[in-house]
């Protein structure tokens, strides 16, 4: 890029980051400002989309999709690095490369789409004795551990798994475990999966709608609930709960909540309780001129009824399309499009039992069991993956008018 060129920088290669870059490249292609050089650059640790919604499944190391062919087809430049700081006044970010060296990247407009990570409070033993499925590497460690359980003596502790957190992720990994454990320990093995949830109901954020189906699936899969309970300590041989109960278990999985990436703290801007940046209807970070946010780092209204985007690929994908369009439009003087995503669905995997699919913020059940499972499989293996490495098709998919309900 020449010295007088302009740059849109996207931080993050997750769902929001990938679609932000594509959305920006699409709008620039439409604007076609002759004589003005504007490049779209995406910076991330690797040019891969990590398919986090599938990390409760087996083979987590395979849950990646390459992005370089797509970027090359659409004119997006990739920089390998991990962003560690944002200097808004100087319009630049600081990053660390794969070689460990620090470098800076300047920008004219920035989209922060650095995602989220698992919330890990200071529970004794959490950092050393618990597993998670937060990132691909975490899920791979858990899978390897479960695969070696058969090498241990046949005891109740070996056959017991405690899942801490009865939200979306906790339910999906818990319902996956009975079949996975029996595939390792034997089809007749007496396995014991226990879900610990602080709230007085499972899936507290999912509401009343799907709860009877979730409870039915857990019961039929033989999964035990401990509601209104927290974990006090975690060890390699089990946990102690807030009620003083000791549960012997060789496997403890922590799924209790998410927080926005720490880069949000690098901006002098308002954040919500999950660390997400408050944004306006155009997804511009409040109090800034040149910084937009999308995905798990953005606290964004989805409609005029008071609903806000969740930390999900469903919302991240559409927010990315809008953020990319708007950041480019802001640079070239085109019309910005207010982000709106009134259509909201959930499709919760319930392991070998099936799944449950709901529509609307009141989560009205539309499909259950095998039918919902087939839809879940289609969503997770087709709908959420990157578009083909074809310029025209990719730009068509990056149109903010495209509604994603995955």
TrEMBL record:
Q: Does the keyword Oxidoreductase apply?
A: yes
Q: Which Pfam families match?
A: Pyr_redox_2
SUPFAM superfamilies in the record, alphabetically?
FAD/NAD(P)-binding domain
- The chain positions of domain FAD/NAD(P)-binding read 7-320
Residues passing through the membrane, by range: none
Keywords associated with the record: FAD, Flavoprotein, NAD, Oxidoreductase
Q: Name one GO molecular function term.
A: NADH dehydrogenase activity
**Family to which this protein belongs:** Belongs to the NADH dehydrogenase family.
In Swiss-Prot or TrEMBL terms, this protein is called NADH dehydrogenase
Q: Which lineage?
A: Bacteria, Pseudomonadati, Pseudomonadota, Betaproteobacteria, Burkholderiales
């Amino acid at each position: 890029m020449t010295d007088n060129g302009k740059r849109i920088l996207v931080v993050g290669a997750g769902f929001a980051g990938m679609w932000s870059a594509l959305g920006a490249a699409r709008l620039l292609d439409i604007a076609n400002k002759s004589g003005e050089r504007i490049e779209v650059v995406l910076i991330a640790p690797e040019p891969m989309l990590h398919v986090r919604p599938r990390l409760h499944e087996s083979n987590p190391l395979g849950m990646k999709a390459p992005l370089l062919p797509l970027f090359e087809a659409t004119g997006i430049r990739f920089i390998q690095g991990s962003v560690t700081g944002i200097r808004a006044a100087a319009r630049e970010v600081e990053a660390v490369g794969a070689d460990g060296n620090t470098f800076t990247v300047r920008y004219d407009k920035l989209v922060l789409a650095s995602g989220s990570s698992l919330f890990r409070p200071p529970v004794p033993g959490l950092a050393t004795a618990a597993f998670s499925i937060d990132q691909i590497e975490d899920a791979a460690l858990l899978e390897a551990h479960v695969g070696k359980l058969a090498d241990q003596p046949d005891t109740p502790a070996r056959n017991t798994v405690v899942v801490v957190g009865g939200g979306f992720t906790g339910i999906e990994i818990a319902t996956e475990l009975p079949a996975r454990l029996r595939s390792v320990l034997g089809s007749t093995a007496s396995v014991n999966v226990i879900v610990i949830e602080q709230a007085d109901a499972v899936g507290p954020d999912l509401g009343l709608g799907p709860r009877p189906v979730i409870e039915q699936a857990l019961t039929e899969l033989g999964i035990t609930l401990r509601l209104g309970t927290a974990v006090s300590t975690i060890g390699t041989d089990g946990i102690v709960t807030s009620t003083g109960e000791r549960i012997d278990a060789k496997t403890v999985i922590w799924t209790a909540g998410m927080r926005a990436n720490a880069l949000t703290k690098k901006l002098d801007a308002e954040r919500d309780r999950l660390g997400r940046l408050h944004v306006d209807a155009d997804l511009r970070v409040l109090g800034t001129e040149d910084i937009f946010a999308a995905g798990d780092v953005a606290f964004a209204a989805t409609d005029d009824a008071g609903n806000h985007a969740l930390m999900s690929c469903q919302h991240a994908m559409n927010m990315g399309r809008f953020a990319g369009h708007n950041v480019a439009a802001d640079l070239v003087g085109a019309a910005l499009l207010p982000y709106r995503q009134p259509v909201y669905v959930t499709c919760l995997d319930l392991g070998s039992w099936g799944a449950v699919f709901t529509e609307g913020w009141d989560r009205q059940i539309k499909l259950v069991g095998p039918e919902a499972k087939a839809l879940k499989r289609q969503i997770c293996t087709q709908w959420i993956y990157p578009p083909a490495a074809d310029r025209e098709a990719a730009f068509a998919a990056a149109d903010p008018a495209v509604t994603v309900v995955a």
